[in-house]
Amino acid sequence: MKITKNKSIIVIFVLFLCLGSATLYKYRSKIYYAKKYLIEKEQYRYKATTNPLRDKIPNSPNEIIFGLDLSHHQRHINWKKVAQNPPHFILFKATEGSSHRDSKYKHHVKEARNHNIIVGGYHFFSYQSSGKGQAKHFLKQLQIQKGDILPVLDVEFTRTMQSDEWITQNIADFIDVVEKEIGKKPIIYCEIAYYNRFIKPKYGDELQLWLSDFKRKPKNHFIIWQTTDKYKQVGIPGTVDYNIFNGTKSDLMNFTY
Q: How many Cβ atoms are within 10 Å of 236's Cβ, its own excluded?
């Protein structure tokens, strides 16, 4: 009985070591791929700028044209309070992938329009379905009207992505479908590293960019700059994304439908 007990202890100890080794291997693998992911991402951030910023942002804070981007995450909005110090524009998430619809999109758009705020809609790009299918889904849900900001395609780095060729082609397919429908290409929301890697090789400096950079003003030209996700807007609980338009209110009209 004593020998059997000792054997059991040894077996348990060996199993513990094996499980510990497996966990450590998985942990080290995650660290390795996380570092690899960041290195691959960052190497595209500092590529030479071929379309330098033409800075039209007013110097006076009171003259800056700013906007928010919102989704179902901002479920409870007091629109009367928002209207006391309203943003000049709000971009709302409409869809994601080829089937998901943002549950608050229609309600948010209606309320913003009722309070005379310029609106627009964006689609969050998925690597699980075709660009054509996603664009058709987006356009079907998008309630675009005259005076709205042009549709936006939101493309971002994720841990699981397709090949560069697949991404470039399916983004191009998405852009083509939107352009055929409304006569203009969508605005592209992304980091400059993403644009340099996946989009610029095909489009050069042709597309209008909404760039995200929380550390510094991008050197590349943009029409909208997302500066932070910590902005506090009266009437909206928590913090939200804050965006500065590169120009005056009359300039903003050049990017409407």
A: 18
CATH hierarchy code of domain 61-255 = 3.20.20.80
Q: Distance (Å, rounded) from C-alpha 131 to C-alpha 15?
A: 47
Q: Give the pLDDT band (50/70/90) at residue 182.
A: very high
CA angle 187, 214, 201 (to 5 degrees): 45
C-alpha dihedral sign at 195, 199, 204, 209? negative
Q: Which residues pair with 131 in a beta bridge?
A: none
pLDDT digits (tens, 9 = 90+) for 59-110: 999 999 999 999 999 989 999 999 999 999 999 999 999 999 999 999 999 9
Beta bridge partners of 67: 89, 243
Phi, psi of 154 (to 5 degrees): -95, 110
Contacts of range 139-146, beta carbons closer than 8 Å, 24 or more positions apart: 139/177, 139/178, 139/181, 139/182, 141/94, 141/95, 141/101, 141/105, 142/94, 142/95, 143/106, 143/109, 144/182, 144/257, 145/257, 146/256, 146/257
SS (H, E, C) 54-74: CCCCCCCHHHCCEEEEECCCC
DSSP result, 224-253:
EEEEEEEE--TTSSS-EEEEEESS-HHHHG
Can you name the residues that pair with 243 across neighbouring β-strands? 67, 226
Domain positions in the chain are: 1-42, 61-255
